[in-house]
Design a protein that fits this description.
About 60% of the residues lie in helices and about 5% in strands. The chain is mainly alpha-helical. The strands form two sheets. Strands 1-2 form a two-stranded antiparallel ribbon. Strands 3-4 form a two-stranded antiparallel ribbon. Helix 3 crosses helix 5 and helix 7 packs antiparallel against helix 8. The longest helix is centred in the C-terminal third of the chain and has 21 residues. It is globular and about 40 Å long. The protein starts with a helix and ends in a 6-residue tail after the last helix.
Length: about 190
Protein backbone atom coordinates (compact mmCIF):
# COMPACT_ATOMS: atom_id res chain seq x y z
CA UNK A 1 0.00 0.00 0.00
CA UNK A 2 1.48 3.38 -0.97
CA UNK A 3 1.75 6.18 1.56
CA UNK A 4 -1.22 8.51 1.77
CA UNK A 5 -0.99 10.99 -1.08
CA UNK A 6 -1.32 13.89 1.36
CA UNK A 7 1.63 12.74 3.51
CA UNK A 8 3.82 11.96 0.51
CA UNK A 9 2.93 15.23 -1.21
CA UNK A 10 3.61 17.22 1.95
CA UNK A 11 6.91 15.39 2.41
CA UNK A 12 8.00 16.18 -1.15
CA UNK A 13 6.94 19.82 -0.78
CA UNK A 14 8.92 20.13 2.46
CA UNK A 15 11.95 18.42 0.89
CA UNK A 16 11.81 20.95 -1.96
CA UNK A 17 11.30 23.94 0.35
CA UNK A 18 14.27 22.92 2.49
CA UNK A 19 16.56 22.47 -0.53
CA UNK A 20 16.85 18.68 -0.91
CA UNK A 21 16.68 19.05 -4.69
CA UNK A 22 19.83 21.19 -4.52
CA UNK A 23 21.95 19.02 -2.22
CA UNK A 24 24.40 16.75 -4.04
CA UNK A 25 24.14 13.07 -3.18
CA UNK A 26 25.36 9.91 -4.91
CA UNK A 27 23.10 9.32 -7.88
CA UNK A 28 22.13 12.98 -8.25
CA UNK A 29 20.49 14.90 -5.44
CA UNK A 30 19.29 14.18 -1.94
CA UNK A 31 15.73 14.49 -3.26
CA UNK A 32 16.33 11.81 -5.90
CA UNK A 33 17.95 9.52 -3.33
CA UNK A 34 15.05 9.94 -0.89
CA UNK A 35 12.54 9.12 -3.62
CA UNK A 36 14.48 5.97 -4.53
CA UNK A 37 14.61 4.86 -0.88
CA UNK A 38 10.84 5.33 -0.61
CA UNK A 39 10.32 3.37 -3.84
CA UNK A 40 12.57 0.56 -2.57
CA UNK A 41 10.55 0.28 0.63
CA UNK A 42 7.32 0.27 -1.41
CA UNK A 43 8.65 -2.56 -3.58
CA UNK A 44 9.22 -4.58 -0.40
CA UNK A 45 5.63 -3.99 0.69
CA UNK A 46 6.47 -1.65 3.58
CA UNK A 47 3.52 -0.04 5.29
CA UNK A 48 2.75 3.60 4.38
CA UNK A 49 4.38 5.18 7.47
CA UNK A 50 7.68 3.43 6.75
CA UNK A 51 7.53 4.47 3.09
CA UNK A 52 7.03 8.12 4.06
CA UNK A 53 9.86 7.77 6.59
CA UNK A 54 12.03 6.50 3.73
CA UNK A 55 11.17 9.61 1.77
CA UNK A 56 12.16 11.78 4.75
CA UNK A 57 14.93 9.70 6.32
CA UNK A 58 17.61 12.38 5.95
CA UNK A 59 15.69 15.31 7.44
CA UNK A 60 17.76 15.44 10.64
CA UNK A 61 20.96 14.24 9.00
CA UNK A 62 22.48 10.89 9.90
CA UNK A 63 25.65 9.49 11.38
CA UNK A 64 26.85 8.98 7.79
CA UNK A 65 25.32 12.09 6.13
CA UNK A 66 25.52 15.13 8.44
CA UNK A 67 23.64 17.57 6.16
CA UNK A 68 20.38 18.13 8.02
CA UNK A 69 17.32 19.78 6.50
CA UNK A 70 15.85 20.44 9.95
CA UNK A 71 17.40 20.31 13.42
CA UNK A 72 15.88 17.69 15.73
CA UNK A 73 14.40 20.43 17.93
CA UNK A 74 11.96 21.13 15.07
CA UNK A 75 10.52 17.60 14.97
CA UNK A 76 6.97 18.90 15.30
CA UNK A 77 7.19 20.52 11.85
CA UNK A 78 7.98 17.22 10.18
CA UNK A 79 5.42 15.34 12.30
CA UNK A 80 2.74 17.80 11.22
CA UNK A 81 3.58 17.15 7.56
CA UNK A 82 3.99 13.35 7.57
CA UNK A 83 2.38 12.11 10.78
CA UNK A 84 3.84 11.20 14.13
CA UNK A 85 4.42 7.52 13.32
CA UNK A 86 6.53 8.26 10.24
CA UNK A 87 8.37 11.09 12.01
CA UNK A 88 9.28 8.78 14.91
CA UNK A 89 10.93 6.42 12.42
CA UNK A 90 12.81 9.33 10.81
CA UNK A 91 14.04 10.51 14.19
CA UNK A 92 15.13 7.02 15.24
CA UNK A 93 17.01 6.58 11.98
CA UNK A 94 18.72 9.96 12.29
CA UNK A 95 19.57 9.52 15.95
CA UNK A 96 21.50 6.27 15.51
CA UNK A 97 25.11 6.20 16.64
CA UNK A 98 26.03 3.53 14.12
CA UNK A 99 29.34 2.50 15.66
CA UNK A 100 27.72 1.80 19.02
CA UNK A 101 24.42 0.41 17.72
CA UNK A 102 25.09 -1.74 14.67
CA UNK A 103 27.10 -4.53 16.33
CA UNK A 104 24.27 -5.60 18.66
CA UNK A 105 21.08 -4.22 17.10
CA UNK A 106 19.65 -7.66 16.29
CA UNK A 107 20.48 -9.06 19.75
CA UNK A 108 17.60 -9.46 22.19
CA UNK A 109 19.40 -7.23 24.68
CA UNK A 110 21.07 -4.97 22.11
CA UNK A 111 21.01 -1.28 22.89
CA UNK A 112 20.39 1.63 20.58
CA UNK A 113 22.71 4.59 21.19
CA UNK A 114 21.14 7.96 20.40
CA UNK A 115 23.83 10.22 18.91
CA UNK A 116 21.85 13.34 19.82
CA UNK A 117 21.51 12.54 23.52
CA UNK A 118 24.37 10.06 24.07
CA UNK A 119 21.93 7.75 25.88
CA UNK A 120 21.41 4.09 25.16
CA UNK A 121 17.75 3.31 24.56
CA UNK A 122 15.56 0.28 23.91
CA UNK A 123 13.15 1.15 21.09
CA UNK A 124 10.04 -0.97 20.58
CA UNK A 125 10.76 -4.08 18.46
CA UNK A 126 8.67 -2.81 15.52
CA UNK A 127 10.77 0.38 15.44
CA UNK A 128 13.98 -1.66 15.45
CA UNK A 129 12.64 -3.62 12.45
CA UNK A 130 11.69 -0.36 10.73
CA UNK A 131 15.18 0.98 11.39
CA UNK A 132 16.81 -2.14 9.90
CA UNK A 133 14.55 -2.09 6.83
CA UNK A 134 15.16 1.63 6.24
CA UNK A 135 18.90 1.11 6.70
CA UNK A 136 18.89 -1.63 4.08
CA UNK A 137 16.87 0.46 1.61
CA UNK A 138 19.23 3.41 2.07
CA UNK A 139 22.46 1.46 1.68
CA UNK A 140 21.18 -0.64 -1.22
CA UNK A 141 20.29 2.52 -3.11
CA UNK A 142 23.85 3.75 -2.73
CA UNK A 143 25.28 0.35 -3.70
CA UNK A 144 23.11 0.16 -6.82
CA UNK A 145 24.00 3.69 -7.95
CA UNK A 146 27.72 3.73 -7.21
CA UNK A 147 29.94 0.79 -8.19
CA UNK A 148 32.86 2.22 -6.20
CA UNK A 149 30.70 2.44 -3.08
CA UNK A 150 29.57 -1.16 -3.62
CA UNK A 151 33.14 -2.33 -4.18
CA UNK A 152 34.43 -0.54 -1.08
CA UNK A 153 31.53 -1.24 1.32
CA UNK A 154 29.57 -4.16 -0.18
CA UNK A 155 31.16 -6.95 1.87
CA UNK A 156 30.88 -4.97 5.11
CA UNK A 157 27.25 -4.08 4.39
CA UNK A 158 26.42 -7.68 3.53
CA UNK A 159 27.92 -8.75 6.88
CA UNK A 160 25.88 -6.05 8.64
CA UNK A 161 22.62 -7.04 6.98
CA UNK A 162 23.37 -10.71 7.60
CA UNK A 163 23.42 -9.80 11.33
CA UNK A 164 20.21 -7.78 10.79
CA UNK A 165 18.56 -10.64 8.88
CA UNK A 166 16.08 -11.50 11.69
CA UNK A 167 14.88 -7.88 11.51
CA UNK A 168 14.53 -7.70 7.72
CA UNK A 169 11.60 -8.68 5.54
CA UNK A 170 12.29 -11.59 3.18
CA UNK A 171 12.25 -9.17 0.22
CA UNK A 172 14.78 -6.84 1.85
CA UNK A 173 17.08 -9.73 2.75
CA UNK A 174 16.87 -11.12 -0.80
CA UNK A 175 17.84 -7.74 -2.26
CA UNK A 176 20.71 -7.39 0.23
CA UNK A 177 22.14 -10.70 -0.97
CA UNK A 178 21.59 -9.88 -4.64
CA UNK A 179 23.00 -6.33 -4.60
CA UNK A 180 25.83 -6.77 -2.11
CA UNK A 181 27.14 -10.22 -3.00
CA UNK A 182 30.63 -10.12 -4.45
CA UNK A 183 30.62 -10.04 -8.22
CA UNK A 184 33.43 -11.16 -10.49
CA UNK A 185 35.95 -8.43 -11.21
CA UNK A 186 36.20 -7.28 -14.80
Amino acid sequence: MPPSPAAADQAVALLRTLGAADIAHPGGTLMAHCRRVQAQLASWGARPALQVAGLCHAFYGTDGFPSALLPPDRRSELAEAIGSEAEAIVYLYASCDRGATYPTLADADGGFRNRFTGRTESPEPHLVRDFAELSAANELDLARIDADFRSKWGAELLALFTRFRPLLSPSAWSDCRTVLAASPQD
